[in-house]
Amino acid sequence: MQDILNRSVSPEITKFNPDLFGIESLLPYKTIFANGIPCYQINKGTQELVKIEFLFEAGTYYQQKKFSAFSCLQLLTEGTQSYSSEQISQTFDFYGAYIEKEIDRDFATISVYCLTKYLDRILPIVEEIIKYPCFPTNELQIFSEKQKSQLTINKEKVNYIARTKFTEIIFGATHPYGAIADITDIESTTTDDLKYFHNNFLSSMNCKILISGKIEFDCMNLLDKYFGNSKWGSNQISLQPYINPNSINELKHYIVKDNAVQSAIRIGKEMFNFHNPDYFKFQMLNTILGGYFGSRLMKNIREDKGYTYGIGSAFLPLKYSGYFFITSEVGKEYSQKTIHEIYFEIERLTKDIVEKEELNLVKNYKYGEFIRSIDGPFAIAEAIKPLILYDLNFDYYSKYLKSIEDTTAEELYIIANKYFTNNNFIELIVGKK
User: Fold this and answer.
1) DSSP bridge partners of 426
2) I want to staple 108 with a disulfide (CB 3.0 to 4.6 A). Which of 103, 302, 378, 379 is the partner?
3) Are 273 and 415 contained in the same domain?
4) Residue ending a domain, choose from 194, 227, 260
């Protein structure tokens, strides 16, 4: 008879050894096609399935007109030189394939999921989508009307207002990282704007390919056939250089939303990106403060005070910059109390050394988070993608795991005092006055 599991006793924690993990087994194999496009392969799948990601340095940072980058990416599948939107949709449905389009401030990604045996049927369509979209005027009009309706709805949400206004305050309303499209921007976008963005930024000169899953020999031959030989789009990369932020000097901001049920709070500041030597240590500090469910902000403001259902902090690195923020939604009567407790927890990190037990807990959490993030070939690809996009060395994760192991409470104390003691946090509340 098996022993009954005693759930009142915590399981023993096995010490994670980064040196024995074998991080090098995750690294992709790189080839370069004849047209100069690098292709990274993560061949680890057991199912007859592949994911192909076309990566472009074509985020909203590079658009000449607001809304043009997002519209360009979303309308790629709405008609090409050879296929209508209905034909594209029906073909993908028939073969059980799926296409996904994502864009952020720095990068645009077109991802295709497909059964390996049908790749020869899908890639010709994908070639048309990426190389020869026609951006029909009627499709742009329909898309624009939907986006205007969605924007009107979003403008009533305190969380949306806080998120968009916060980056505007940090970087400036005219800066590419702070600029947000409005109704007039949507209405003024034309097919010529989309064609210009497509030709200049979704070109072969600005493309990288990442394929993951069960990669058979024919997969690479097909990729080479449709994307590895000829060039398309502009023959030069017209990426604009970094623009210095034009942030608002005032630190405290209140946007009145009289019909709001709760108030959205954002507190934070501009920071740095992946290449800063303090990046790993600051991520550890952020986790302690508000980066996981057992964080200090959650324990204090959610569990102890009951001011909110959820609160957290995050650090978002960008290509040219980055920012740190704390976010929550609370009842109007708890706004100032919540802000007071947020600053209390920030100050604690600058005054007191983190206890060994808490630091070890966070280290184990970070190890577990990393292991979960590489569960399967597609997950590994997602972990490898930032290294490709941000030009990071492929020993990045070895250094990351080593940093977790080596981080001391004294180092976190130094980092906290370096970034948390100059009283330059931007504070934003959106809600009832």
Assistant:
1) 268
2) 103
3) yes
4) 227
- The CA-CA-CA angle for residues 171, 282, 415, to 5°, reads 100
The DSSP code for 114 is E
**In a shared domain, residues 390 and 286:** yes
Are 323 and 193 within one domain? no
Taking alpha carbons only, the member of 166, 90, 100, 150 closest to residue 121 is: 90
> Where are any strands of DSSP class E within 345-400?
none
Residue 315: CB partners within 8 Å, gap ≥ 6?
271, 282, 283, 286, 322, 323, 324
pLDDT in tens, the chain (433 residues): 456 777 787 767 666 666 656 778 888 999 999 999 999 999 998 899 999 999 999 999 999 999 999 999 999 999 999 999 999 999 999 999 999 999 999 999 999 999 999 999 999 999 999 999 999 999 999 999 999 999 999 999 999 999 999 999 999 999 999 999 999 999 999 999 999 999 999 999 999 999 999 998 899 999 999 999 999 998 877 666 677 887 777 899 999 998 899 999 999 999 999 999 999 999 999 999 999 999 999 999 999 999 999 999 999 999 999 999 999 999 999 999 999 999 999 999 999 999 999 999 999 999 999 999 999 999 999 999 999 999 999 999 999 999 999 999 999 999 999 999 878 899 999 999 8
**39, 104: one domain:** yes
Alpha-carbon distance of 415 to 282, in angstroms, equals 7
Residue (of 285, 278, 427, 426) closest to 352 by Cα position: 285
Are residues 257 and 179 part of one domain? no
Encoded tokens for 15: 């010490």
Q: Is 179 within a domain?
A: yes
Q: Which domain holds residue 291?
A: 252-431
What total number of domains does the chain contain?
2
Q: pTM (2 decimals)?
A: 0.93
